[in-house]
Amino acid sequence: MHWIKLVFVFGKIVVICYMLANGIRARYSKFGKFDEISRLMAVFILILIALIAFDLTKKYIAGFYFLVLASNFINFLCLSHILRKLR
Question: For a FRET experiment, which of 8, 11, 33, 71 has its CA 20 to 30 Å from that of 51?
Fold first, then answer.
């Protein structure tokens, strides 16, 4: 049962990282530089990879808490930057 959960979670994170990487590439081709949102998306990819690494190795609750807190904060920052640019 653990392997089924791991396959689904790993697949979901791979799809999300792929979409974020395509978003970074699209923003670079549109603006010609890496802006703040692109950097935040890159950090978010690293956090997701770190969450997978924590899931496959020792389970540090403090590490999970920090990574989930950081990913939620980055999601909020990206959303606020995107909404600010829509005005």
Answer: 33
Flag whether pLDDT at 29 surpasses 80.
Answer: yes
SS (H, E, C) the chain: CHHHHHHHHHHHHHHHHHHHHHHHHHHHHHHCCCCHHHHHHHHHHHHHHHHHHHHHCCCCHHHHHHHHHHHHHHHHHHHHHHHHHHC
Rounded Cα distance between 54 and 63, Å, is 8
How many domains is the chain partitioned into structurally? Answer: 1
Directed axis angle between helix 36-56 and helix 61-86, to 10°? 160
Give the model confidence (pLDDT) of 55-73 as tens digits: 888 878 888 889 889 989 9
